[in-house]
Amino acid sequence: MTLTKLLGALAAATVLSSAAFAQGYPERQITMVVPFSAGGPTDTVARLVAEKMSADLGQQIIVENVGGAGGTLGAGQVAAAEADGYTILLHHIGMATSATLYRSLAYDPLTAFEYVGLVTEVPMVMVARPDFEPADFPAFIEYVKANNDTVTMANAGIGAASHLCGMLFQSAIDTQFVTVPYKGTGPAMTDLLGGQVDFMCDQTTNTTSQIQGGTIKAYATTTAERLALFPDLPTATESGLPTMEFGIWHGIYAPKGTPAEATDRLSAALQVALADEGVIKAMADLGTAPSSAEEATPAALKAKLESEVARWKPVIEAAGVYAD
Q1: What single string gives the DSSP state of each residue in 60-73?
Q2: Pseudo-torsion of CA 96, 100, 101, 105, nearest 10°?
Q3: CB burial of residue 190 (10 Å; 0-12, 13-18, 19+)
Q4: Fewest beta carbons within 10 Å, which of 246, 264, 270, 301?
Q5: What tens digit of pLDDT does each residue of 44-67 get?
Q6: What one-character DSSP code corresponds to residue 234?
């Protein structure tokens, strides 16, 4: 056989193999790793979409919680997994911040993964123990600045959404105060409810029921506009803190080298899930909304991650607080 014929045969075999993979995928259960504890806000988002994606794919997606090290343990596990489309990762904004927070990561967030698509962007809310003294957000800011050596802000650990929000808040008001890291959102919220800490900033997926029940005091959101869920709650921007405008976006990834046929099929299933009326309603009840069909794509997630790594790098370096 000539070299030309051999190359042609190899190319044809590759095309047939790719077509066969696309037609058969998925043939078994898929594991979706969530790099945070069960019951937390990211876990809530993951389980919402996993159920509907499973129905579209015809195979079950099992959510596996691999918490620790600000989400890097779970992400690292997926980065090292076989690139066959059967292990995927649902991670939040921490995928972007870990690139700077951790100076000796075992993987590069920008090069160790293939992309599936964006899932949602969850607003943050500044909340406090119910008996916290300030009456509104401007008074809250002044109180924190005047009592920065005694007030305490809880977070779910270095790299968690609540930790990132706290760093932005300190930068926005140009004031350092005492932060108390916990091993997860649940313990942080428990101590806030019990009055052991004064305030925290966390996702609406974790704070909505507490705000509605009156067990915590809400001061402001990090959104550009007021939330329909809490129309009387001002934005941080309204109080002169425009740099506090941000959300905790979530995306789905696969190990580097995962066939495009798999990531494209997963992206299509994600879009079906995000268009589901039940998912839309559930997310609305949590103060958020699904990503659009244009956002739930590999290209959109890739662009988002790259821009967010660039955005957070100077913020983290200015704070001088690293996770390693």
Answers
A1: PEEEEE---GGGHH
A2: 90
A3: middle
A4: 264
A5: 999 999 999 999 999 999 999 998
A6: P
